[in-house]
């Protein structure tokens, strides 16, 4: 498959192409590069130019560079530009311009990646689908996703994230979605934004990139929903609210053998669907997904049937049977909203003792101690039997719990990981949750190792 010819890539970036090459893909990592890829020599922790020779040896069609690296022949197949990241952005814009299908962009404080994956699975069978890989949602992830997009894609699903103010609008303008969805707004990255209202304004900026007469899918019932609606109105968008109220609302989510049997009302039509999870928060996002797909022109009933094939991604709420315990692996990220959802999921599962193993929630700003303490009063905590905790911030939640709920506290997640098998017992249902930088995922790895079971393979 031809994705980029040397001439097309040069025209898109204003660069100088060496050789008459044809690229079938775009890569930024020599560890996963495939023959025929255009290797993009980005500079991050390491300078990608140091890996150009290796990329070419592995069969890269060419490399996007700002200089000819040492050890690379002067006549090697290259696309030479002044700066690599702006050139990747230009390549992404060109990829978006030539694509004539429908683009859906997704952002939110919680659930971006799982919702993006949900939308991708739900669209199966309705044309050629292109979606962001993993959590490629930042200043290089969005243009990379667009640059990889086949021109004959019928639907594209773009994930857009942020850490600092002013990041979402430029990425949305690059993606130019027909439909933009915000999963929710929660206390994440508060250090950079100061208050949840600031986060809402940043999330609402996704609507600035909407195509003419685009559709905004916004969560109803939040304190900041009016802010999101104001941004959508300013963009001239058609606004669809989703949640427990709104044009797309969840009517029922009934747990049944580890699954959820759901019913929704979307634009006055009743839609039934099943999810392979017991997490009620996933059901709400599924309703938003169906509303978004309908706005993009997909068959909503067909998409609802396909939702049964979706699995929560690893580290984001997937449930697995492991050495006599049931493990909820939700160790990828954490803030008060997502922790509350994880605790509710744990509380709702039937079986043995319910155990939570929690790492610090990070980037919460000056109220981080109070926000950790407050989780001890979360309604779901009443049904949690035991809490193990790691990190100086999670110590505050631990200390706020009744004595009978306190398990083990450790300074770092590695200490809990070292004794993981001692923290649980056969029959337990175990939630592992924490911000990625808290490294509580080490506990998940240790539990899997002690249970002698490999990590689950993802479908789709």
Automatic annotation (TrEMBL):
<dbReference type="InterPro" id="IPR036565">
    <property type="entry name" value="Mur-like_cat_sf"/>
</dbReference>
<keyword id="KW-0131">Cell cycle</keyword>
<comment type="pathway">
    <text>Cell wall biogenesis; peptidoglycan biosynthesis.</text>
</comment>
<dbReference type="InterPro" id="IPR013221">
    <property type="entry name" value="Mur_ligase_cen"/>
</dbReference>
<dbReference type="InterPro" id="IPR035911">
    <property type="entry name" value="MurE/MurF_N"/>
</dbReference>
<dbReference type="GO" id="GO:0008360">
    <property type="term" value="P:regulation of cell shape"/>
</dbReference>
<dbReference type="InterPro" id="IPR000713">
    <property type="entry name" value="Mur_ligase_N"/>
</dbReference>
<feature type="domain" description="Mur ligase central">
    <location>
        <begin position="106"/>
        <end position="292"/>
    </location>
</feature>
<dbReference type="GO" id="GO:0009252">
    <property type="term" value="P:peptidoglycan biosynthetic process"/>
</dbReference>
<keyword id="KW-0436">Ligase</keyword>
<dbReference type="InterPro" id="IPR051046">
    <property type="entry name" value="MurCDEF_CellWall_CoF430Synth"/>
</dbReference>
<dbReference type="InterPro" id="IPR004101">
    <property type="entry name" value="Mur_ligase_C"/>
</dbReference>
<dbReference type="InterPro" id="IPR005863">
    <property type="entry name" value="UDP-N-AcMur_synth"/>
</dbReference>
<dbReference type="GO" id="GO:0005524">
    <property type="term" value="F:ATP binding"/>
</dbReference>
<dbReference type="GO" id="GO:0047480">
    <property type="term" value="F:UDP-N-acetylmuramoyl-tripeptide-D-alanyl-D-alanine ligase activity"/>
</dbReference>
<keyword id="KW-0963">Cytoplasm</keyword>
<feature type="binding site">
    <location>
        <begin position="108"/>
        <end position="114"/>
    </location>
    <ligand>
        <name>ATP</name>
    </ligand>
</feature>
<dbReference type="Pfam" id="PF08245">
    <property type="entry name" value="Mur_ligase_M"/>
</dbReference>
<keyword id="KW-0067">ATP-binding</keyword>
<comment type="similarity">
    <text>Belongs to the MurCDEF family. MurF subfamily.</text>
</comment>
<dbReference type="GO" id="GO:0005737">
    <property type="term" value="C:cytoplasm"/>
</dbReference>
<dbReference type="Pfam" id="PF01225">
    <property type="entry name" value="Mur_ligase"/>
</dbReference>
<dbReference type="GO" id="GO:0051301">
    <property type="term" value="P:cell division"/>
</dbReference>
<feature type="domain" description="Mur ligase C-terminal">
    <location>
        <begin position="322"/>
        <end position="435"/>
    </location>
</feature>
<dbReference type="Pfam" id="PF02875">
    <property type="entry name" value="Mur_ligase_C"/>
</dbReference>
<keyword id="KW-0573">Peptidoglycan synthesis</keyword>
<dbReference type="GO" id="GO:0071555">
    <property type="term" value="P:cell wall organization"/>
</dbReference>
<keyword id="KW-0961">Cell wall biogenesis/degradation</keyword>
<dbReference type="InterPro" id="IPR036615">
    <property type="entry name" value="Mur_ligase_C_dom_sf"/>
</dbReference>
<keyword id="KW-0133">Cell shape</keyword>
<protein>
    <recommendedName>
        <fullName>UDP-N-acetylmuramoyl-tripeptide--D-alanyl-D-alanine ligase</fullName>
        <ecNumber>6.3.2.10</ecNumber>
    </recommendedName>
</protein>
<comment type="function">
    <text>Involved in cell wall formation. Catalyzes the final step in the synthesis of UDP-N-acetylmuramoyl-pentapeptide, the precursor of murein.</text>
</comment>
<feature type="domain" description="Mur ligase N-terminal catalytic">
    <location>
        <begin position="24"/>
        <end position="67"/>
    </location>
</feature>
<keyword id="KW-0132">Cell division</keyword>
<dbReference type="GO" id="GO:0008766">
    <property type="term" value="F:UDP-N-acetylmuramoylalanyl-D-glutamyl-2,6-diaminopimelate-D-alanyl-D-alanine ligase activity"/>
</dbReference>
<keyword id="KW-0547">Nucleotide-binding</keyword>
